[in-house]
Amino acid sequence: QVQLVESGGGLVQAGGSLRLSCAASGRTFSSRGMGWFRQVPGKEREFVSTITWSGGRTSYAESVKGRFTMSRDNAKNTMYLQMNSLKPEDTAVYYCALSKVGSGTWDYWGQGTQVTVSS
Asked: 70: which strand partners?
């Protein structure tokens, strides 16, 4: 089993910044990558960004490209999402997820952390 714990959410004004963290523990070996997703009530969960387990490659949704940066600290088994130039439309619950090698899906999810951007 793998446990994922997010932190760092909160309330920020438009144009501000937040950094989310996701700490992974448990059987994290044979992991393929990690990702961030977000969800607004009444809407489907949407992709934000992903990073390979080694931290070598990242990808981003078009809506956050150039504003959000994802990174990993391998020693701490923690990934980060630095969010700059936040907009009200970034308001959502943000979830981190982990995918195992050989899996075609996201196998583990965190509990989510609320990000609220005021205008």
From this structure: 81
> Do 36 and 96 meet the contact criterion of CB atoms below 8 Å apart?
yes
Q: How many helices (H) and strands (E) does the chain have?
A: 0, 11
Q: Within a 13 Å sphere around the CA of 43, how many CA atoms are in the beta-carbon half?
A: 11
pLDDT score recorded for residue 96 = 97
User: How does the average pLDDT of the chain come out, rounded?
Assistant: 94
Give Cβ neighbours of residue 16 (< 8 Å, ≥ 6 apart).
86, 117
At residue 45, the 3 state secondary structure works out as: coil
* pLDDT, position 56: 76
Could you give the CA distance from residue 107 to residue 43 in angstroms, rounded to a whole number? Answer: 21
Gyration radius (Cα) of the chain, Å = 14
Which of 31, 116, 106, 41 lies closest to 72, judged by CA?
A: 31
Buried/exposed code over 68-78 (b: 16+ C-beta within 10 A; e: otherwise): bebebeeeebb
